[in-house]
Write a structure and sequence with these properties.
Number of strands: 10
Order of helices and strands: HEEEEEEEEEE
Oligomer: single chain
Largest sheet: 10 strands, antiparallel
Structural class: mainly beta
Shape: globular
Radius of gyration: 21 Å
Distance between the termini: 63 Å
Length: about 180
Amino acid sequence: MRNKAPSLTKVPVGLAAWALTLLLAMIAIPGQAAAYSPGCDQIPIVYGIPPWGFHTGGEGASFARGHGQINLQAHIVSGIICQEDGHGAITMTVEHHLLYQSHYAVMWRFPGNIMKIRVRVRASNDPKCKVGTVGRATLFASYNGVRSDSVQFFFPAACRDQDHLYHGTQVDNQVPPL
């Protein structure tokens, strides 16, 4: 029996298919980023019990809201968040790895659920806070009938104007238990 030589036409076709897939993926990434606009107009306030969600109250000098999905067993989270203040508006997506979560947290002297997530700015009209900037958010939801929820954003130096702490009865935060 003779060994059959590999077909030379299959290698370029496979390589071409791989290159085309890569090219389409690269084109899709900017298209997805372009789908976001800065601010909260496109992000509804979610009431009830979503997997996770929050809003910080009225549309005053500074406000934020967001919602998304979470899998506590796999430590995976997703979602969208917006924030508007006197420096501008930003829209963020949630990076998929859940940084921290606990059902036994204590903040503001009250027990509650907490989750810490990484966020990425996807749209911005704040000249100092560029698209692609990565920050963090801590969401705390008190329980036992206490209303002492909070949402806090942390950003690197260039985007520091977007660091905010929202805390008190105007914050409605739903963080799932374990």
